[in-house]
């Protein structure tokens, strides 16, 4: 039996999936992301996670044909070189593919995590049958995976789809890991809305959020969701702020790509259907074209990233084996 590993690296977690030669997911695991680690240290932890996954599944690494890794990074795809990572800021200017391959002694394919998730949803999830599709993760960060003519579009250098770092209010607000203020991600993402809430609290805003979290520094997007459910004014402001700018973000993407299939995924979907409805309402507030636009939610759940990461490497290895 031949096996493949898919790894989904996020700002708060690393997910691992083991797949057999029929693309079936047979084992999975998760570890926490540590943003304080250097690129090399973080990669070593990922390698340890891969070995632990294989050991728990009683699979020898000699039976593994390749590893696909999705990272929340600006990646030169052909080289597997990471230029920067907005949510794991120590991972930059790093020859990641080379580092992993030298230590795993396996073929490794590295891509942006939105691209891997887009592959998964297009082939096995909500985007099945769509010739063109935009996968839009809304989580610790935001970005796009772009499917055009049934294939991933990566652009000239490999990071097409980093629309979360497109500027909407230049030089205003919290500083994002992209080293700019005022990008869409600084308004919409879970990590950045927390910073905006903490800033308002420091300026004297009244809220139950510190009480819910056990202190202002412990507030997360989940805390904001709980607070909004209880009618907290600051939490409701945060929820509306994210929904408004997410709607504007999707509208801009529609104007640029004229792709009418949006698949939304990520942890912020926990805000629920009313929040998604508000995003669509903002979209239609600005979109004057009456032609259909489809907003779907990802179907593969927590496995989206690892499935997509495996989809990076499985076809490549199978093609090589048949050459």
Q: Which stretches are low in confidence, meaning pLDDT under 50 for 5 or more residues running?
A: none
Q: What is the mean pLDDT?
A: 94
Oligomer: single chain
The helix/strand order is EEEHEEEHEHEEEHHHHHEHEH
Q: What structural class is derived from the secondary structure elements?
A: alpha/beta
Using only C-alpha atoms, the radius of gyration works out to 20 Å
Write down the overall geometry: globular
Please give the share of residues in helix: 25-40%
User: What is the count of DSSP helices, taking H or I runs of 4+ residues?
Assistant: 10
Topology, number of strands: 12
Could you tell me the strand content as a percent range?
Answer: 15-25%
Summarize this entry quickly.
The protein is an alpha/beta fold. It has ten helices and twelve strands. α1 (39-56) crosses α2 (96-104), α3 (113-124) packs across α10 (304-322) and α7 (221-229) packs across α8.
Please specify the SSE layout and strand pairing:
Blueprint: E1 3-9, E2 13-20, E3 25-32, H1 39-56, E4 64-71, E5 73-76, E6 81-85, H2 96-104, E7 108-112, H3 113-124, E8 133-137, E9 145-148, E10 151-152, H4 184-188, H5 190-202, H6 209-213, H7 221-229, H8 233-257, E11 261-265, H9 273-286, E12 294-297, H10 304-322
Parallel strand pairs: 1-4, 4-7, 8-11, 11-12
Antiparallel strand pairs: 1-2, 2-3, 5-6, 8-9, 9-10
Helix pairs in contact: 1-2, 3-10, 5-8, 7-8, 8-9
């Amino acid at each position: 039996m031949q096996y493949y590993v898919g790894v989904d690296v996020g700002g708060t977690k690393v997910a691992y999936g083991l797949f057999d030669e029929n693309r079936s997911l047979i084992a999975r695991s998760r570890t926490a992301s540590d943003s304080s680690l250097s690129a090399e240290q973080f990669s070593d932890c990922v390698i340890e996670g891969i070995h632990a996954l294989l050991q728990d599944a009683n699979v020898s690494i000699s039976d593994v044909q390749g590893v696909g890794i999705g990272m929340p990074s600006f990646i030169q795809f052909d080289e597997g070189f990471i230029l920067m990572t907005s949510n794991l800021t120590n991972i930059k200017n790093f020859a990641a593919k080379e580092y992993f391959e030298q230590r795993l002694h396996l073929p490794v394919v590295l891509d942006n995590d939105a691209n891997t998730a887009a592959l998964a949803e297009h082939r096995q999830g909500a985007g099945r049958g769509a010739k063109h599709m935009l996968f839009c993760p809304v989580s610790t960060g935001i970005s796009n995976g772009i499917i055009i003519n049934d294939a991933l579009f990566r652009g000239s250098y490999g990071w097409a789809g980093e629309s979360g770092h497109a500027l909407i209010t230049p030089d205003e607000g919290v500083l994002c890991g992209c080293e700019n203020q005022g990008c869409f991600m600084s308004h919409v993402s879970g990590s950045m809305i927390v910073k905006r809430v903490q800033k308002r609290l420091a300026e004297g805003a009244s809220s139950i959020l510190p009480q819910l979290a056990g202190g202002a520094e412990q507030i997360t997007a989940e805390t904001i969701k709980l607070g909004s459910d209880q009618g907290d004014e600051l939490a409701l402001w945060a929820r509306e702020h994210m929904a408004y700018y997410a709607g504007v973000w999707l509208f801009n993407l529609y104007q640029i790509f004229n792709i009418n299939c949006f698949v939304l995924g990520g942890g912020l979907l926990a805000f629920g259907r009313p929040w998604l409805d508000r995003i669509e309402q903002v979209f239609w507030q600005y979109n004057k074209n009456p032609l259909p636009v489809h907003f779907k939610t990802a179907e593969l759940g927590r496995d989206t990233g690892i499935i997509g990461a495996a989809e990076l490497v499985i076809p490549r290895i199978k093609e090589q084996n048949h050459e």
